[in-house]
Amino acid sequence: MEIKEIMLKIEQEDITVLQEEVKAQFDNRQQTPLGFVWRKKHYEVLQLLQTKKEPAGQISYLVLTDGGVFKLVLVRENEETVCRSKWVLQYRVNVELKEVFQNISREAGPAPAPPDPVFVEKLAGIIPGPENMFVPLELAAIANYHGHLCPELAVGYRAGLIARASLNLHRRNAHEFFVVAENLSSAIDALQYLTGCTFGNQSFYAYETGKHVYYFARYNQEQVLHEALRISLINPLIDLSPYQPIAARLCAGKAAPEEVSRYHRAISQAVKDILNLPEESLFTQKVVSIRRPQPFSRHAYSRCARCGEVVAAFSIVAINDRPLCPVCAGREK
Ligand SMILES: [Zn+2]
Ligand SMILES: [Zn+2]
Asked: Which ligand minimizes its atom distance to the CA of 311?
């Protein structure tokens, strides 16, 4: 089934009218709905098929989800001066999900027609697998930010989703939380993007133990110890060491074409498994007590008396009454 066939079904009113208010998550940056909860089930948006401004002024979104094709409308209600908005699930298109998947995938040729479909290999570059792979829009955005879609990124994404569901940790309330990671891998890009806790805003901390272990905690100024959700990866499916020789030949530009595609398929499969396996076969979870690493106050700065570069006050070393940056202080000694 092609997108225009879905449009035809809508035109012929081959739809199931719902008209139910739903809770939806919306990504302001991308201006797209990411998912919604309907009849207690969460539907993840995999592809935005069409955005339209309706005659009455509302904006409607035709979305392909993991549970079918739906039309979602953002309705604004003007109650005198207060403007309230709500999401209404207008209808579901009577179409088998399997049909849509098969054929939209096939449409994703070298020149996809707008609206730009979000496909892994388009974003990833490293995963031009034989079959197209649909990923949730939010993960596509993360892959775009990170530069590619790799197994570690998928691990961070899954761990972040667990934290979101168990602690209600979202970008909008990120300032109430902090996150600690035991590695410096691609996963931490996914986690920063997903949670809104970042290195820059000093609510993300990471050190390398080589483990995919993550702590998520709600910050309380009055406490030293914080209750944290500890999530650790126990499934070794991210191990791609059997492909290391191919990767080395690939870097040297000496890999045979069939080796390259074997390597890509292995990565693609690892990503798929990480995205599809149930939580309990990927991670263990427990609640532990942790301290929040000390954030630095970065309001005070001076210029180094030797090199003239600006340096934060907490790093200044005074030698013979001269304020020096740590590098110059080392040279003076
Ligand atoms: Zn990566
Ligand atoms: Zn200096």
From this structure: 2
* Residue 147 in tokens: 């530069």
Closest ligand to Cα 186: 1
**pLDDT tens-digit series, residues 160-205:** 999 999 999 999 899 999 999 999 999 999 999 999 999 999 999 9
The helix/strand/coil state of 261 is helix
Q: DSSP label at 115?
A: S
* Structural contact between residues 67 and 177, judged by C-beta atoms closer than 8 angstroms: no
Other beta carbons within 10 angstroms of residue 239's beta carbon come to: 10
Q: Give whole-number Cα distances, 251 to 148, 241, 287, in Å.
A: 17, 15, 42
Is 42 in a helix, a strand, or coil?
strand
Taking the CA of 331 as reference, the closest ligand is: 2
Query: Cα(333) to centroid of ligand 2, in Å?
Result: 13
Sequence-distant (≥ 6) Cβ neighbours of residue 151 within 8 angstroms: 237, 238, 240, 267, 270, 271, 274
Q: How far away, in angstroms, is 107 Cα from ligand 1 center?
A: 27
Q: How far is the CA of 317 from the centre of ligand 2 (A)?
A: 10
Residue 252 has which token pair? 């040297």
Q: Which helix (H) or strand (E) holds 217?
A: strand 213-218
Closest ligand to the CA of 303 = 2
Task: Give every CB contact of residue 82 below 8 A, 6+ residues apart in sequence.
Answer: none
Look over the chain and give the mean of its residue pLDDT values, rounded to a whole number. Answer: 85
Annotate 133-165 with DSSP letters as a single string. -B--HHHHHHHHHHSS--HHHHHHHHHHHHHHH
Q: Give the pairing of strands 32-38 and 15-27.
A: antiparallel
Q: Dihedrals φ, ψ of 27, to 5°?
A: -95, 110
pTM given for the model:
0.71
Reading the block at residue 76, the tokens are: 């604004």
Measured N-to-C along each axis, helices 3-11 and 97-107 cross at an angle, to the nearest 10 degrees, of 130
**How far is ligand 1, taken at its centre, from the CA of residue 150, in Å?**
5
Nearest to 48 by CA among 2, 108, 114: 114
